Amino acid sequence: MATAKNLVIAQSGGPSPVINNTLRGIIETARNLDEIGTVYGARHGIEGVLREELWDLSSQSHEEIELLEFTPAAGSIGTCRYKLKDGQDEDFDRVIEVFKAHDVGYFIYIGGNDSMDTANKIASLAQQRGLDLVGIGGPKTIDNDVGDNEYKLIDHTPGYGSTAKYWMHAVQNANEENRGSSPADPVLVLQAMGRKIGYIPAAARLADPNREMPLQIYLAESPCSLAQLADNVNDQLKQDGRCIVVVSEGFDVGDLGEVKDGFGHTSFSSSQTTVAQLIVNYLNVNGLAAHGAARCNVPGTDQRHSMAYASTVDLAEAYLAGQKACTLAAAGDSGNMATILRNAGDEYGVYYDKVPLSEVANSERTFPTEWITDSGNDVTDAFIKYAQPLLGNSMVSLPMIQGRQRLTQLEPIFASQQLVPYEPQAKR
């Protein structure tokens, strides 16, 4: 039998409530595979590989690994927004050097489309350099924008179901506030994540599938202008006396003083102002068809780390996606991403398969235009049918200690560094 090779897992991009359950799925599966030796977690994604900061996950207690299921975001081993780009030859050389130094035969990168690009580049580079390394992708993004518009590469990504559930509950509760305070505050504007892709704000409709609320939804893809939005809101006020507006952070309202992240994407939460505030200002300055004023609420990053609203379906699928990624690695299926595909038929069910990293790297699925209503301020029943099964029918039961969440606390056990210190090329 060949000697077992070590596995490095890394996480990249924005966190999600269930990202650590994918990590858990990989770790727990690897324990039972003879092909895999020590499991390392790269501290803060590919930056941890470059800096040779490899967290020994095999030495952690089973209890702490199990608690990853209920530990949101990426605080356990960290994430990053550092991307290996063409021309960063020193970085690529360093990755190979680190993997050789630590007898790494498997690399799994958990993330979205940019992360799959990095995983693909590393898998290809290893093959070119004659390194016995299997590179695998593990899907993750709350935006649900990885894959294709036909849903043949992946039906949905782990993380989306939980953020969709967050928005379902957020709108339900916001509706109660708006109903009660509407004489003074008839308009409430809620801003959802979603730079260019509308899956997150669309999830607001799941709070009201029978369309009984005075709810309007504006995706980044909405054909409506700011002036049209204001007209629509005032029409709603004339009819119902109140209005809830859910708007994508990427809805076009003009200059925001935008700030870019490490991937080159607009970081709306870091920009000088928000879409929601500009909409509220516009509504209040131009006048409402009701007494009182418009207000806004910008949940921010809690929509991607709120464990209390995590979907039980999402948690289970995230784990099994990690399990699939690990078995692909052990089988030597380099250059693939573990994927989730929906069974045919009306009853919801999924199966786990693989797709080439080259097909999902830097992919960007768009929100179907046919799922946007003709008015441009809502989504259709077809979206509800697609998204509703991802939410689960119950609330997650969180482990608690003295009234606080019991989160994973990994011991700071790291592989001994064998190479000279290194600073990532693009950060010098």
**CATH structural class of the largest domain:** Alpha Beta
- What is the percentage of strand-forming residues? 15-25%
Helix content bin: 25-40%
Structural class: alpha/beta
Radius of gyration: 23 Å
Q: What is the name of the CATH topology of the largest domain?
A: Rossmann fold
| Total domain units | 2
CATH architecture of the largest domain: 3-Layer(aba) Sandwich
The average pLDDT is 93
Largest sheet report = 7 strands, mixed
Query: How many helix segments?
Result: 12
Quick one: overall form? Answer: elongated
Strand order of the largest sheet: 3-2-1-4-5-10-11
Which ranges are low-confidence, i.e. pLDDT below 50, for 5 or more consecutive residues? none
Instruction: Give the CA-CA distance, first to last residue.
Output: 44 Å
The sequence of SSEs as H and E is EHEHEHHEHEHEHEHEHEHEEHHEE
Number of strands: 13
Comma- or semicolon-separated keywords:
428 residues, alpha/beta, Rossmann fold, 2 domains, seven-stranded mixed sheet, four-stranded parallel sheet, elongated
Offer a concise description of the structure.
The protein is an alpha/beta fold and 428 residues long. It has 12 helices and 13 strands.
Description:
Helix 1 packs across helix 10. The chain is of the alpha/beta class and 428 residues long. The strands form three sheets. The chain has a seven-stranded mixed β-sheet with strand order 3-2-1-4-5-10-11, with helices on both faces. The protein has helices spanning 19-30, 46-50, 62-66, 89-101, 113-128, 160-181, 199-202, 226-240, 275-286, 312-330, 357-360, 381-387; strands spanning 5-11, 36-42, 54-56, 104-111, 134-139, 187-192, 215-218, 243-248, 294-297, 336-342, 350-356, 400-401, 404-405. The chain contains twelve helices and 13 strands. The protein has two domains: 5-159 and 309-363 and 393-427, 3-Layer(aba) Sandwich (Rossmann fold), CATH 3.40.50; 161-306, Rossmann fold (3-Layer(aba) Sandwich), CATH 3.40.50.460. The model has no long low-confidence stretch (mean pLDDT 93). Helix content is 31%, strand content 16%.
